[in-house]
Amino acid sequence: MHKIEIPNTVGKNKNMSLDELYRYRTQCGELQCHRINVPDGMAGELIINISRNEKALSIEEVFVDRKFRNTGLGSSLLSFAEKTAMTSGFQKVELRVFSTDPLVPDHKLQEWYMKRGYEVDGEKMSKRINPRNFEVMI
């Protein structure tokens, strides 16, 4: 299990596992996890960081199970993150590209994001949010 060192609330350092860090950040209201479940498991997942200390909504993870790729599910998750950014007052969405699937190299994943309007922004990719691109739901 990976350990990450982060400062705790009293200023001392504490080693936390990724699961503990996720629970901590979720309790602080920074992370939102959205899962798409199917009868035999999970089809996809989106984890976003909506910290008010940041200038952009950060996509921490977009996961689509291999069985559900090329169905539009990933694009739907990405669109949901962008709509959340807009309704939360962010003008930009950013992410780091890294593939956890050996069959999908990072450069292919980067191309996928570029087709959806994302641009390379230093070590990250980002997209400016334009409210005119979203329908208003009443």
Overview in brief:
The chain has 138 residues and is α+β, with helices and mostly antiparallel strands. It contains three helices and eight strands; from the N terminus they run E-E-H-E-E-E-H-E-H-E-E.
Detailed description of the structure:
This protein has 138 residues and is α+β, with helices and mostly antiparallel strands. The protein has one domain: Gcn5-related N-acetyltransferase (GNAT) (Aminopeptidase). Helix content is 25%, strand content 34%. It contains three helices and eight strands; from the N terminus they run ββαβββαβαββ. It has helices spanning 18-27, 73-87, 106-115; strands at 3-7, 13-17, 31-38, 41-49, 57-64, 92-95, 119-121, 124-128. A six-stranded mixed sheet has the order 3-4-5-6-8-7, with helices on both faces. A two-stranded antiparallel sheet has the order 1-2. A hairpin with a 2-residue loop joins strand 3 (31-38) and strand 4. The radius of gyration is 16 Å and the shape is globular. Mean pLDDT is 80; it is low at 1-14.
Number of helices: 3
Major pleated sheet = 6 strands, mixed
* N/C terminus separation: 45 Å
CATH secondary-structure class:
Alpha Beta
Mean pLDDT: 80
The CATH topology is Aminopeptidase
Number of strands: 8
Helix content: 25-40%
Q: Please state the CA-atom Rg, rounded to the nearest Å.
A: 16 Å
Query: How would you describe the shape?
Result: globular
The computed structural class is alpha+beta
- Helix-strand pattern: EEHEEEHEHEE
Which strand order spans the largest sheet, edge to edge or round the barrel? 3-4-5-6-8-7
Tell me the name of the CATH homologous superfamily.
Gcn5-related N-acetyltransferase (GNAT)
CATH architecture group name: 3-Layer(aba) Sandwich
Please mark out the parts with pLDDT under 50 across 5 or more consecutive residues, or reply none: 1-14
